[in-house]
Amino acid sequence: MHPKLSRAARRLLCCGGPASGEDLSDEGTGSLRWVFSLRELRSATNNFNYDNKIGEGPFGSVYWGQVWDGSQIAVKRLKNSKNGTEVEFASEVEILGRIRHKNLLSFRGYCADGPERILVYDYMANSSLYAHLHGPLSAECLLDWRRRASIAIGAARALLYLHHHATPQIIHGSIKATNVLLDSDFQAHVGDFGLIMLIPDGIDHEKITSENQRGYLAPEYIMFGKPTAGCDVYSFGIILLELASGKRPIEKSGSVKTFGIRNRVLPLAKEGRYDEIADSKLSDKFSESELKRMVLVGLACTHSEPEKRPTMLDVVPLLKGESKEMLLKLERDELFRPDLTVSSQGTSTPEGSTDSAPRKDQELGGE
């Protein structure tokens, strides 16, 4: 243990610290936290072998590893991190270590050795939401409606915690399907939170976080390059639309033209054609009332005007079906009023949609 680390940091990194925030029922698992040596992480990951690589993002590469006690870890080897001392890096990491919630990816420790800056997390056995919706695991169709509803609520609760209970407040800045990780029970754990604070001041934050994030960025983020809570809400809305429809945030239509998921879903929602929005891989086994709720909230979150988006304080009860009045108000919002100039026969059906299916009334998700 570095002798210059603060007493709080040493207590946090060695034996775990108390959860911050008000909702103690949501605190994390309390995994041990400690300082890893570079030698230990090289051994755990087979010297950062390519075969151990499980992800690549704007903040660095992620490797699967196994430590001496047999537990599995995810090792994020940072790039573009601040070139400060170990003590300075540990101070930044201390903040991340205090941010604990059962739907946030559990932080286990760090390594600062020479130029290396590495973060260590719990390994998530079921990869990411992206892998199941669009990637190598999508053909297995493991995300039934119950799991999708649970993932939506879990990820929403994580963002609620970051925005309204964490001290200091954490703006994620990189919400996307690859950062919603799934454990062995398919419970959602949001990763990469707080990593923006590790980017040096001289580096363009917007350039880094926009890598591989097309379709998730709020209009004002694209314009001004500054992440806000409203930007996180927008990105989360896109994830809700992905969960409901199975579509990517941006898909090609023809050889050149691209089509955003919001523009694809909104016309159908205005006409109440939710069966045509639903992911065909669900095979009609879903709760239409819950899918409708998810779509309405997702579209509200992606409103082009930031001040008209709900906060995560609103989103969680909406998704859980706890706020009937708020949901009714949302349904009546002008955003969802049918276009008078376009009839249902005149609205084009999105590629991959199905004809109208029988209505589903059984509640499958939520808590």
TrEMBL record:
One of its GO terms (molecular function) is ATP binding. Keywords: ATP-binding, Kinase, Nucleotide-binding, Serine/threonine-protein kinase, Transferase. Pfam families: PK_Tyr_Ser-Thr. InterPro entries: Kinase-like_dom_sf, LRR_Rcpt-Like_S/T_Kinase, Prot_kinase_dom, Ser-Thr/Tyr_kinase_cat_dom. Residues 338-367 are annotated as: Disordered. Residues 48-319 form the Protein kinase domain. CDD domains: STKc_IRAK (cd14066). It comes from the Eukaryota. Coiled coil: none annotated. Residues 341-356 have a biased composition (Polar residues). Its EC number is 2.7.11.1. This is non-specific serine/threonine protein kinase. It comes from Panicum virgatum. The lineage of its organism: Eukaryota, Viridiplantae, Streptophyta, Embryophyta, Tracheophyta.
